[in-house]
Amino acid sequence: MGQTRDEQAAYVGRRRASVAAPESGIPTTPYVGKRRAATPTLERPALTLPAEPIRVPAARVEQPTPVPVTSGRRRADVDTATIERVLADLEPVDASTSFAGEDTVILPLAGYRLTATFGEYGLWSSYHTGLDFAADSGTSLVAVARGVVTSTGYDGAYGNKTVLTLEDGTEVWYAHQTSIYVSAGDVVAPGDVIGTVGSTGNVTGPHLHLEVRPGGGDPVDPRAALIANGVTP
What does pTM read for this prediction? Predict the structure, then answer.
């Protein structure tokens, strides 16, 4: 049977698509498979920009809060002239036999256990430069010998640190403190409380990191230095 013009069929490739006859003069859109062969054009609405540019407030960046030091003390260094004047007021000592001469030398704290010794490798960037005394946070720290406080404050990986300069120029560093009770320029005697044990800086727990630096130079073994001065940690 022949097909009428209203039922005429169109072929695309091997797929069949029926073309319906227009009704009432309204054109139809042919389909190929299930895809529309023609898409009506949509008019894009006009975009009106504001006359003045929109001001976006700058993001606020919070600055890190530094580790507090008791009594609000910030790091301070005494000028060389002041250090020399204070040390000159103290009696001279024989540095060849003891960094404290005939003065009393004591341990820096009580109720501790040693956890890391001088020269060890592992947790540190090079080697361990001091002697670690693990103790409860808040345990009192005392001056090991007579001297003058030459520096106090926060010092990176050392945390809150106090530097005590002894009569022969040897520096004793107390690191990771929670509290600092002295200021640069203070003269202290053996047993004077200078601060407390803490865990500031790079630590795995509360402890005192003690360093001994003859003449303010490279560190030496604190345990050997203390033993040479009559006390054994």
Answer: 0.60
